[in-house]
Design goal:
Elements: H1 9-33, H2 44-67, H3 73-102, H4 108-157
């Protein structure tokens, strides 16, 4: 998209480098944005719901800007991607924490392995579909696809329990 707006290789590369570094910094600072509860879920699950809802709103807002052909659209997109990166980094950190919080210590390695495999598959699928959507309908279609998938993510967080299931009594 940015190439189509007159950005050159160096500009796009610099933006992507800054975005990647900023993303990592925000992930490192995520505990400052999401406080840990004593039980490990009662604060974190509502945070996952909040941050996934906020994340879904970003591509929705960008899609509206693209559809309306807002003035200075490239800068709106760049700013929106910055906001998206911030919210995505917080989400990623919270979701990684929740995987460990829900995993029992006996099968934590298996759960974490499954999480990373699912994460990789999700990123591949998202990259593939966003590329196809961009080819079919430009940035607007890609943003709408992102908004739909992130809304599904948010709806999924509504099913997350905020309390641990009682453990069966040992025999």
């Amino acid at each position: 998209y940015l190439y189509s707006q007159g950005w050159n290789f160096t500009m796009v590369g610099t933006f992507l480098a800054a975005w990647t570094i900023g993303y990592g910094a925000v992930q490192a600072l995520a505990p400052a944005f999401v406080k840990r509860s004593a039980d490990g879920l009662s604060t974190e699950v509502p945070a996952a719901r909040l941050w996934s809802a906020l994340l879904a709103l970003v591509p929705m807002g960008l899609a509206v800007a693209v559809a309306m052909e807002a003035p200075n659209l490239p800068w709106i997109v760049v700013g929106g991607l910055g906001v998206f990166g911030f919210a995505f980094a917080i989400n990623s950190s919270v979701h990684s924490y929740l995987v460990l919080a829900y995993a029992g210590s006996e099968k934590a390695a298996e759960d974490v392995g499954f999480y990373y495999a699912a994460n990789a598959l999700g990123r591949f699928t998202g990259t593939l579909f966003s590329g196809l959507l961009y080819q079919w309908g430009g940035l607007l279609y890609a943003l709408l696809g992102s908004a739909i998938m992130l809304t599904i993510c948010w709806l999924t967080t509504l099913k997350l329990p905020e309390k641990r299931a009682p453990q069966p009594a040992a025999i």
